[in-house]
């Protein structure tokens, strides 16, 4: 029996179990995305019912860690959507140069590919030394891999092509040390990156940012949770700050707070008259 065959009540019971035992709230996530991720986890764990799964995570924190990783899994890669990074380099970076210090928040950073892409871009533009990047995610296992910055070497060729399409000006391979089939990002590229746990469903902002990258995260939320997350992200942006979303995402109910800075690349700029996001 597939997870898709379970009714909403059974899925809701699982989410309540998770919220009560571990504090993670998945009630506002897209049920279709959650069902797909649950099906993958159930097959991997060789479980036949959500009741079994609830019992397992109730008594085993390690089992929950595996479930959390599967529930929050997202497709990510270096320089994903090269057109976005090209627009960031061409249109946003020139406006950031005059600022004494730069603060960027990469929300929902998963295993770090987007963080490392942003770090490479800022390095090439001469801004990395005075930038502080805050990379956050709710999954500890994903954050640990992001901190390590180690990827299968076989992915480098495809990522290198995306890097070139994004306007890369150097040798992509030169940003990594390759050994034993893996590529590790050079440590100096992430010395100004702060990795931390953060949950867009319940945590608050932790500082004022020049730009927020929250790409391909909101598509996994329902309408109410998207509105909540957008309000949260907006509170971290002053007037003139940049909100960067995924290729299928919009500011939605908060649209009036932003100007279309580079709409094709889903880059929006906080309006001077907008004030704080509600």
Structural account:
The protein has 278 residues and is of the alpha/beta class. It has 2 domains: 3-71, no CATH class; 82-270, Rossmann fold. It has 9 helices and 10 strands. It has helices at residues 8-22, 31-45, 50-59, 61-71, 82-96, 113-124, 140-148, 156-165, 223-235, and strands spanning 102-107, 131-137, 150-152, 176-179, 182-185, 193-197, 211-214, 242-245, 258-262, 267-270. Strands 6-2-1-7-8-10-9 form a 7-stranded mixed β-sheet, covered by helices on one side. Strand 4 and strand 5 (182-185) form a beta hairpin. Helix 2 crosses helix 4 and helix 3 crosses helix 4. Mean pLDDT is 92; it is low at 274-278.
At CATH's second level, what is the architecture of the largest domain? 3-Layer(aba) Sandwich
Low-confidence sequence ranges: 274-278
Number of strands: 10
Q: Helical amount among residues, as a percent range?
A: 25-40%
Q: How are the secondary structure elements laid out?
A:
Elements: H1 8-22, H2 31-45, H3 50-59, H4 61-71, H5 82-96, E1 102-107, H6 113-124, E2 131-137, H7 140-148, E3 150-152, H8 156-165, E4 176-179, E5 182-185, E6 193-197, E7 211-214, H9 223-235, E8 242-245, E9 258-262, E10 267-270
Parallel strand pairs: 1-2, 1-7, 2-6, 7-8
Antiparallel strand pairs: 3-5, 4-5, 8-10, 9-10
Helix pairs in contact: 1-3, 2-4, 3-4
List keywords for this structure.
40% helix, 2 domains, alpha/beta, Rossmann fold, 7-stranded mixed sheet, 9 helices, globular, 278 residues
In short:
The chain has 278 residues and is α/β, with parallel strands linked by helices. It has helices at 8-22, 31-45, 50-59, 61-71, 82-96, 113-124, 140-148, 156-165, 223-235, and strands at residues 102-107, 131-137, 150-152, 176-179, 182-185, 193-197, 211-214, 242-245, 258-262, 267-270.
